[in-house]
Amino acid sequence: MSVLVDQDTRVLVQGITGKAGGFHAGQCMDYGTQVVAGVTPGKGGQKFRDEVPVYNTVAEAVATTGANVSLLFVPPLAAADSILEAIDAELDLVVCITEGIPVRDMAEVKARLQMPGTRTRLIGPNCPGIITPGACKIGIMPGYIHQPGKVGVVSRSGTLTYEAVWQLTQKGVGQSTCIGIGGDPINGTSHTDALRMFEEDPGTEAVIMIGEIGGTAEEEAAAWARDHMSKPMAAFIAGTTAPPGRRMGHAGAIISGGEGTAESKIAALREAGIEVAPTPAEMAEALLKVYSPG
Amino acid sequence: MNIHEYQAKQIFAEYGIPVARGYPARSAGEIESATASFAEDQKIVVKSQIHAGGRGKGTFTDGFQGGVQIASGPAEARAIAGKMLGNTLVTHQTGPEGREVRTVFFTEATGIDHEYYLAILLDRKTAQSVVIASTEGGVDIEEVAESTPERIIRLQVPPTLGLRPHQARRIAFGLGLEGDLFKEMTKLLMNLYRMYWETNAMMVEINPLVRTADGHIEALDAKVSFDENALGAHPEIEALRDTNEEDPKETEAAEYDLNYIAMDGNIACMVNGAGLAMATMDIIKYYGGEPANFLDVGGGATEEQVTNAFRIITQDPNVRGILVNIFGGIMQCDVIARGIVNAARTIELTVPLVVRLEGTNVEEGRRILAESGLELHAAEGLAPAAEAIVARVASAA
Questions:
Q1: CB neighbours of B14 closer than 8 A, spacing ≥ 6?
Q2: A159–B271: do the CB atoms touch at under 8 Å?
Q3: What's the Cα-to-Cα distance from B331 to each of A99, B275, B303, B337, B360, rounded to whole Å?
Q4: What is the CA radius of gyration of chain B?
Q5: CA dihedral sign of residues A155, A158, A159, A165
Q6: Rounded CA separation A168/B252 (Å)
Q7: CA angle, B272 then B274 then B276, to 5°
Q8: Do B382 and A77 count as a contact with CB atoms less than 8 A apart?
Q9: Which residues of chain B carry a pLDDT beneath 70?
Q10: Mean per-residue pLDDT for A78-99?
Q11: ipTM for the predicted complex
Q12: Which of A17, A226, B204, B287 lies 20 to 30 Å from B228 when distance is taken between CA atoms?
């Protein structure tokens, strides 16, 4: 069992004819992901790697191939429009890797996602994607560091997710699904959304949640976990040393108006009974203090 | 990206938002011509243009008081501007080093009856815009929100609808305006929202927005910051960037697609990924060291980028040691290793270097480092790497 994606997931890649899109589509296929279509407006009729048909529109790709998830690599100023196209085509899930989408565009996408009757979930933007080890990789993460298992991982940061996953794998602890929700201030799936899905997933026994300074998403997730989470959890918050008012790489990672500090997040997590790793080197260790893999 | 007040007011004027007549000047010659456009008996406000608040109460490093002053006429305005231009202004937001004033801005002095506060910004929590207005302007709005929250009007604006006339009316009535002033205010609100939205601003703030002695509404100050991600669609706004207001190392790093932020410590770090870069700073601190910078080389760094990253972090004279922490996913460890070897040779590295590589092609990367003959410590694992660099810097001190 897993969350959102598995061996039956049928993936289309928006922007498959671009450099990054093509490279990562290939990597996902090599991992075993079913990449069934590509979409690049004006390049319909081409084939990717001589086997994956490319379509002009998402609607056409879905009608022809039955794709239900999109992996999106469209350049930043055009990416929001491509997300909207995927939502209109009623995909189950859109995984947007693109970094640098204007916040205003994401505000519009968020409003569209909240319209009644919308069936699509968005992961990202500015994220590494989602992987169910051994079954389906939809994103840019290195597949080999993962191992199938029962720990769910959710994080805003890409390489910090790899760090947590690698620590788990080295200790022989596998992962059910790892979700990178992205480092932007407005994103499609929150920490709380991910926790809810892990709580409901019978294939997940424990969760590592990785957050960082900025916003209040981690505090909200901690409050939700306190009231609803039955599974053991560990967490790490990056940015204890970050100065206020500076954007630390991710557009969302900024302490402003006294909100979003690492201290307030760590306090909220501890208050919710979540084991907080003191350093990024101890994320797996922290989880294993509260969880014994069966 | 932030811009200067005079630039913001030029954009305001284009969008029909009332501002006083004004002229910027960057040189003695421009001071002459700018002040010549005012009548002899016209009171003139002389304003230092730097990207920091608290200018009025600021002090120049030579003791001259006040980054914003009122002159009785063009002659006095010229004298004041002459003392400001090229001088360094220290305010509560600049830090003790202050900022050099490279532009002064002259505007007609406005008789003020009342000061209001007005801002529009994007609220990440709701993914909607928020209009904030108050009858208490010209002061720190956070203090007003704290002590008299009932004097703050907050209104959500859904991105798909935009600011609606009934919302503008609610704000104008809420500020107690009527008659022509009410009409001017609703018009200003609609225009300001249009400007905010069309230019991809993250925030526009007018503090104070004033009711003038002759009965009009006017933006006395203007603060605008834009979404960096949208500048590609707005070359006319990108052209307003003043790199003098930015850290030169950060500007240089941006040219190589590196994300660099200077800090106060002495251990430089180079990391791939923003989250891991923050976490690396944290673990240095945890083991008793102080990070000298945040540096994210991104997801697909080239050998050249790594070399440039090294050059930039070692320009900081406080640096006593370097920690490289790379978790190669898509980025390959051998590429990083070659970059490190090149950089260390070109810049003749004199401080201790600890390198932690993990991930794709890690064996090849470690081999390149080991065979390079460079004096470096290869650490396995994040914690041993942090401990190693902190210990080396401490023992060298």
A1: none
A2: yes
A3: 16, 16, 11, 11, 7
A4: 26
A5: positive
A6: 38
A7: 65
A8: no
A9: none
A10: 97
A11: 0.91
A12: A17
